[in-house]
Amino acid sequence: MFSSLGSGPSPGGKNAYFTFRAIDNSTFKLSSSTVQYSINGGKTWQTLNANTNSPVIASGNEICWKATASSGLGTFSSSGKFDAFGNIMSLAAGDNFLTASSMGYEQFKALFKNNTNLVHASGIYFPDFTYTNCYDEMFWGCSSLVDAPILPALRVYGASYRSMFRDCVSLLAGPELPATTIYNNCYDSMFCGCNAMVTGPTILPATDLYISCYYQMFRDCLNLLRAPDLPAYTLDNYCYNGMFAGCKKMTYIKCLAVNKSATKCTEWWLPHPYIAEVGTFVKAANTTWPTGDNGIPSGWIVVDAT
User: Cα separation of 202 and 194, whole Å?
Assistant: First the structure.
């Protein structure tokens, strides 16, 4: 149907089957599901049973994947380093990935969890829809991953991106997160432990927050320089709890919250000594904040937003 012709980490994009390009000579297996694979760009396909190694894919060569699945597939492992690109939905909708409009519960949960061989993922095409827990833990522990895919969804269901990049210690930049409609735990611990990440999303634009939506989202991002802008006026229970704990280089926050009465909504979000000693905090005018771990760090300059 479609091929993955081209060079570099991300040829094909939306129109390509989900594909791995071997950096080292590698075999691949998927822990819990039977899938089909092609080593000739989708011209012919073979069946690969769950927890069974693929043929060796020589360095520089590619293997495409497809499956028809309504829920979690399991976890890919590999014997060598590789890049991933193409349309993730060929693992859910098979040959019909271009017209797919929905996915199932935990559809891609833990798909690469603790795979230390995945290097580039920026070429993976993600659709503009989500479902509950769909990408939960997807790249958790991918210690060689250096880049992230674009995440275009404007509505993010519960726990969709929870722990998605957790402990991706080589990831340098987080993707923009344009969603304006979000639900419980949607970004919970998403970048927790990404201690090489310097830049993250510039804004978290949703203004109607839900329980634990950003819980510990950037915890221990040791090199993150700036927080995303936080425009929401009213906070929900645990929404910013622990959000920036351990972000020791972050020196700028713009948070326009006015109603901060929800349960533990900012508890330990900027705790001393796990935050920069000095910085700038931009707040809504005529709004008061406590000083300390659950509010504005002492020693920071406070500025009213204009």
Answer: 17
